[in-house]
Each structure stands twice: as C-alpha cells, then as structure tokens.
Design brief:
Radius of gyration: 21 Å
Structural class: mainly alpha
Order of helices and strands: HHHHHHH
C-alpha cells in the first residue's frame, strides 16, 4: 500500500541520514539544521533507490533476458563486460552524489569525490560478490539464527556497505588534505627566481 511505501522510504531515510552524519564527522564539519538535513536525506534516499533499481536490473533482469536470447562467444563476453560496466558506473554516480551533497561543506570547500566513489563502488561490488559466495558455500546462518537468519544477513550486508561508503569518504578527506609534493614547491620557487 501507499502508506507502507512511504513508511519504508522514511525509515530508509534514517539510514542515509546516519551516513551523512558519519561523513560530517569524517570531514569534521557540523551537521545541517533539522529540516534541511531530513529533506536532503530523503532526496538522497530516493536517488539511491533509483541506483539500486538500475543495478538490480543489470544484475538480475538482464541475465533472465539473456536466457531467452542466448549469445555465444565474444558477444556473450561483451554483454557481460557491458553489464558490469553499467553497474559500476551507476554505483560510481550514486556514491559521487553522496560524497558531493552529503557532507555539510560550503561550495567553496575544495574536496575530492571521485577517488572515494571509485573505492566505494569497486569495494561494494567485490564485497557483495564475496559475501554472496560465502553465504552460498560456507555459511550456516540458518542453523545459527533460525528464521531470522535472512534479516541478520541483510543487516550485516548493510553494515559492510555503510562502512565502505564511510571509508570512501575518509579516502576523499585524506586526499583533499594531503600536502602537495615537494617537486611542485621546487618548481614554483624556481619560477619565482626567474
């Protein structure tokens, strides 16, 4: 129903708001005011839902379509390469959006977003693939947790995903605050002498 959709959206917003607060902590900036923070978190949540829908289409729906239209040889390899390229690109855009709009930084604050977005996108795909392989082959979470096992696994996956986003933000901060190499100082001092 419509009420459950909006309730789910509102609850997902709290997770995105927690990510924004974490990024603000990493950047050492204060959090936004209440209503502004909630509107931004809701908007980013809607954007991330579209990111997830696009990636799920590539990951789940495209292989189902390929069953009805099989390709062989290089065509199959090209489609697989294209599929995973689209997934990584969509994730890269989604994470870049989080890093650009999430932290409470002024427009004049120079910060990098691409290195952290690349780290988070590749890290998310690799960790999700590894986590999936682990669950399929080595885990007995159903025996340990019983009927609530799927919820525990999903929460663990969300924790890993959020941690990767925060690590990407920390990478962006580290690269932004890094001092320039000495060679640029030598070149600029040599130019000043001329």
């Amino acid at each position: 129903s419509i009420l459950s959709f909006f309730l789910t959206l509102w609850l997902a917003r709290t997770g995105v708001e927690a990510l924004i607060r974490g990024l603000n902590t990493i950047y050492e900036v204060p959090n936004r005011a209440g209503l502004t923070r909630q509107i931004l978190a809701l908007w980013l949540t809607v954007c991330l839902i579209f990111v997830l829908l696009a990636t799920m289409t590539c990951i789940v729906v495209l292989p189902l379509i390929m069953v009805f239209f099989p390709l062989w040889g290089w065509s199959n390899i090209a489609i697989e390469f294209l599929r995973w390229s689209v997934v990584l690109t969509v994730f890269l855009v989604g994470f870049a959006l989080i890093y650009k709009l999430g932290p409470n930084l002024g427009r004049s604050y120079p910060h990098r977003i691409i290195p952290g977005a690349l780290f988070a996108a590749f890290g998310w795909v690799l960790s999700s693939t590894g986590f999936s392989i682990y669950l399929q082959n080595f885990s007995n979470y159903e025996q340990v947790y019983g009927s609530i096992g799927a919820v525990v696994v999903m929460l663990l996956w969300l924790f890993i995903s959020a941690y990767l986003v925060l690590l990407g933000g920390a990478l962006n901060v580290a690269l932004t605050r890094r001092k320039p190499a000495k060679i640029t100082t030598v070149v600029s001092s040599a130019r000043a002498k001329l």
